[in-house]
Amino acid sequence: MDFIRLEEAGGDLTIGELVDARITVTESIDTNGRLLIEGDATDSDIWINAIGAGSVEIGFTKAPGAASVANTDFFFNAGIATLATLDLRNARMIGGSILLGNGFDRDLNGTLLLYELAGNVLGTNMTGTLTVTSDFSSGNLGLFGNMSGSIAVGGDLGGDINIGGNYAFFGTLDVGGSVTGNIIVGGDARRDINIGQSLDGTIQVNQSIIVTSTLSMDRVGLTGLIDVADECAALILITHDFDGIIDAGTAFTGQVNVGGDANGSFSATGASAGFILVDGHLAGDVTIPANMSGNIHADADGNDQGDITGNVTITGVYDGDICGANLSPGGLLPTNIVIQGFGPSGSICGGCLSADDCADLDANGIRDDSCVWWACDAAFCQPTDTIYPSDMGGAFGACPPDDFCNVHDRTHALTCFAGTNGCDTINIDAGGPFGACPPDGFCNIHDAYHADKCFKGVNPCSCPGGSPAPMMGPGFGGATGLVAVPVPVALSPNVGRVRIYTTGAVADIRGYQLDPVVSGGTSGQLELLDVTIEPRADFVFAGRADTFEAFNLTNGQMLCGVDDDGVATTGPVYLATYTYRVPPTAAGDFVLDIRRDEAAGDQTFLIATNNGRIAVNATTPSVVSAGAASP
Questions:
Q1: In 3D, which of 465, 417, 468 has the Cα closest to residue 443?
Q2: What is the pLDDT of residues 487-498, one digit of tens each?
Q3: Which residues is 70 bridged to in the sheet?
Q4: DSSP letter string, 376-438
Q5: Which of 464, 454, 450, 445 is nearest to 509 (CA)?
Q6: Is the link from the previous residue into 470 a cis peptide, with omega within 30 of 0?
Q7: d(CA 412, CA 402)
Q8: What are residue 535's phi and psi, to 5 degrees?
């Protein structure tokens, strides 16, 4: 081993590569002095017995991250003064140690700048700064006293940070990447611990986290452990999902905010007054074996979509609010929530108002799973798994499903279409248009045919799955136009009729649904009196005994179909009749037409026997003139 001994060093000292060498500075390095190493340092020791109060730099001259410091130890027996700097930003420190004095009675008051740390930093108190530009990939930062400075790791923290003392953590710890190592604080944590990405390691605070603290996970959430031996009064901010464990110690008076779903667990061993606020679903466990006066809220962002499906156990008196989309004011708690008793300020909030709140969590108007039938019972969501998507209800109008697909389900679809069904309509959606299995948010003729095909055993849509194949129905089934023809004979003054016909031959038509629209006029509006199918010889299904039909006078829609195979037409055929009243307040020409744009949600459909789409390629409207005896 080579030895270099400097008793009084002033100015710059430049040394080449160090291999199995020792540099010892026995006195002070004068103000603005620098010890520079041009190459690498391997298996060497650098001893600094005293550093003055000046600006002193010990560093490497290679490009950032290019120098290698392997198994080399730095000893600072007199501590690092306020303006002293150990600059290893150009070096990767792999192995070795930075020892502040004998590890027990020397402080870090200056600055440590490292590119990458995979070694040890040991000392007593720290009032200065430690900055690691890249990763602190392994090793240990150990302080046996207080820490009031700052630690910044630009990349990932795979090593351990162990801060001891009675009142240890007054500084800040910022990690730009993920934490897979352990952060252990022996005393109070009174400042911020900021994790830029995820925490997969352990944060253990052996005494308390007081109210001024913040633990923040800014990106992907928390999957590790926060273990607090005493009282946790911190604000813990988790901006995404929480999959880890928070053990808040003897009492919890702080606040945990989770920006996503909380699948992890939370516990405290004593009385607690803190808040647990989750923007999404609370599927993890909350255990308080004592009294609690803080709030537990799923769906803290107020969009009525966050459920509490985890186990909540409070064996004392609860004086807070417990809220979730599956809870209700004054309702009974689900079996997974056990609260010994409510205090004078305790309450239950949230809850469902209808089955829509249960079946349509993304609020897009379509049931999320066509294999689950939902009820909102006393403001609690109650699911029932079904065997068939077409099981939309029970017999003779009963709402709960009965494990059959039969004529009762078709009746549910028809009465829902007509607006006369007394059940939650979100469940009456057996599938999409033209045989497609995923539901579409409507109860219409397609649901009637889904029920019919299921009854006949030829429906490919099955459970479980929610959106079974096929995603879309069969293809093209032909094309025709629709025309609205005024009836020349008036029923009475100011009442007129319009008949709807196809415009040409159709090879195969099994059912149809019409969605009319009235526009125009200079004042007032027409009043729909009735929608009927007249007993006419040119009716498309004339002579058939297996027809079914439904009418909705609120929106003017109607449907009609046959159970068995459809019919072929050789020319125009009659479909329906609309009867309107022209009130005295109406003036001008009103235009009655048929909506036919499926992409815009229009509900006009012509269906072939194989569920194929019969395209409506054109419509011809009718004009109803205000004040005329007939249109």
A1: 417
A2: 987 677 788 899
A3: 42, 94
A4: EETTEEEEEE-S-TT----GGG-SS--S--SHHHHHHHHHHHHT---S-GGG-----GGG-SS
A5: 445
A6: yes
A7: 13
A8: -75, 75
User: Which element (helix H / strand E) includes 445?
Assistant: helix 445-455
Give me the chain's average pLDDT, please.
Answer: 83
Q: Which strands sit side by side in the sheet containing 589-594, from one edge to the other?
A: 516-520, 589-594, 622-625
Provide the residue count of the chain: 631
**Nearest in space to 518 (alpha carbons), one of 606, 596, 594:** 594
Please report, as a single letter, which amino acid is at residue 471.
M
DSSP 590-602: EEEEE---GGGT-
What DSSP designation does 65 have?
T
β-pair type (511-514, 605-607): antiparallel
User: Tokens 């700052």 — which residue?
Assistant: 150
Q: Are 158 and 181 in contact (CB under 8 A)?
A: yes
pLDDT at position 592: 94
CA 512 to chain centre: 40
* Runs of H (alpha helix) within 186-236: none
pLDDT in tens, 25-77: 665 545 456 778 888 999 988 877 655 545 556 788 888 888 889 998 887 76
Beta partners for 245? 225, 265
pLDDT average, residue stretch 482-487? 94
Alpha-carbon distance of 192 to 170, in angstroms, equals 9
Separation of alpha carbons 282 and 308, rounded Å? 5
Rounded to the nearest 5°, which phi and psi values hold at 316?
-110, -155
- Strand duo 111-123 + 84-100: pairing: parallel
Cα–chain center distance at 364: 15
Six token digits for residue 357: 């709140």
SS3 513: strand
Q: Please check whether residue 431 is in contact with residue 450, taking contact to mean a CB–CB distance below 8 angstroms.
A: yes
Mean predicted confidence (pLDDT) in 501-519: 95
Best CA proximity match to 370, nearest among 386, 352, 393, 394: 386
- CA 108 – CA 391 distance, rounded (Å): 73
Residue 555's CB is within 10 A of a number of other CB atoms, namely 13
Q: Are strands 18-19 and 41-42 parallel, antiparallel or unpaired?
A: parallel
- The answer to whether the beta carbons of residues 328 and 381 sit under 8 Å apart is no
Angle at 430 between CA 426 and CA 435, to 5 degrees: 140
Q: What is the 3-state secondary structure (H, E, C) of 272-289?
A: ECCEEEECCCECCCEEEC
CB 516 within 8 A of CB 594: yes
Amino acid in position 147: M
Instruction: Encode 302-319 in three state secondary structure.
Output: CCCCCCECCCEEEEEEEC
- Pairing mode, strands 73-76 and 84-100: parallel
Share of the chain above pLDDT 90, in %: 35
At 188, the amino acid letter reads D
Spatial separation of the C-alpha atoms in residues 197 and 190, rounded to whole Å: 22
Radius of gyration for the chain, computed over Cα atoms and rounded to the nearest angstrom: 38
CB 558 within 8 A of CB 414: no
CB hemisphere CA count around 45 (13 angstroms): 15
Residues 6+ apart with CB under 8 A from 395: 402, 408
For 85, phi and psi rounded to 5 degrees? Answer: -135, 130
Say whether 114 sits in a helix, a strand or coil. strand
